[in-house]
Amino acid sequence: MHPLLINNRITKLFQIEYPIIQAGMVWASGWRLASAVSNAGGLGILGAGSMYPEILKEHIQKTKAATIKPFAVNLPLLYPNIKEHIEIILEEKVPIVFTSAGNPKTYTSLLKNAGIIVVHVVSSSFFAQKAEAAGCDAVVAEGFEAGGHNGREETTSMVLIPAVKAAIKIPLIAAGGIATGRQMLAAMILGADAVQIGSRFVCSVEASSHISFKEAIVNSKEGDTQLGLKQLVPVRLLKNPFSIAILNAEKNGASLEELQFMLGKARTKKGMFEGDMEEGELEIGQVSSLIKEIKPAAEIVKEIWNNFTAAASNPF
């Protein structure tokens, strides 16, 4: 075992080789990506937020067939089919569940009574304490830099990680603005036991995100993402004609109803999965400007870990 992994609480908790967690992103995190990350020594996660119950079941079964290593399901608690998802997770004996976008007290006890490890995603030390009190085994502290739905606090990872570390005793996974081994090292120096990485894995060969979306990320620059829609749920988007239009409408005082009408239905599917770069919703993090190529997930895990160990040996 590498010296940096001795007594690492997350690798022990999940029984994985590296403290690298692939985020469960909508329209990107299917069975191919989850199994590839798990097989590479990290923790792969299925993104249930864009899956109907029968699709989630299919992806869980395909993940089991593609890897014998641990994997997880990310479960947004506000999802309309949440009870059906819970039933499938219990039936399929999923080993680890990451919950988000809701009260962790709702299902944590049920999942833990079934022997499932439960992790909750938070955006503040206050909510981290709530997750710990609810019985969660670990928390993901997700900073303002993250892609997709974000916390209202707008706290950056550099501030959030040490704040959450000081507030809880359970293991801490850092997320938001992390795509390289050096960033991973910084997060762990600030108190994290592991990192959760989303945007970098969107640009993997195995991600189910559309190639046009992946190429747009690779070609993005600093400042090409923006956090908005705070009247609804704050979300960070890659700038395109749709995002510019709806964020300008919000800035100019559009009502909640008007914003919901503009957003419509299946907007994320249209952009991230179907590749409509003009009218689709493109959820991605600020760190997209550092991503310069599309690679197999196993190479991404290896590159991050090698970069991490090199930086740990020579941080300056």
Summarize the structure.
The protein is an alpha/beta fold.
What is the gyration radius calculated from CA atoms? 18 Å
Number of strands: 11
- The percentage of residues in β strands lies in 5-15%
Q: Indicate the structural class.
A: alpha/beta
Q: What is the topology, as strand order, of the major beta sheet?
A: 1-9-8-6-5-4-3-2
* CATH topology type of the largest domain: TIM Barrel
Instruction: Give the proportion of residues in helices.
Output: 40-55%
Sheet bearing the most strands, described? 8 strands, parallel
What oligomerization state is this entry in?
single chain
Q: In total, how many domains does the architecture comprise?
A: 2
Shape: globular
CA(first)-CA(last) distance: 25 Å
The CATH class of the largest domain, by name, is Alpha Beta
Considering the chains and any ligands shown, give keywords for the structure.
alpha/beta, 2 domains, 316 residues, eight-stranded parallel sheet
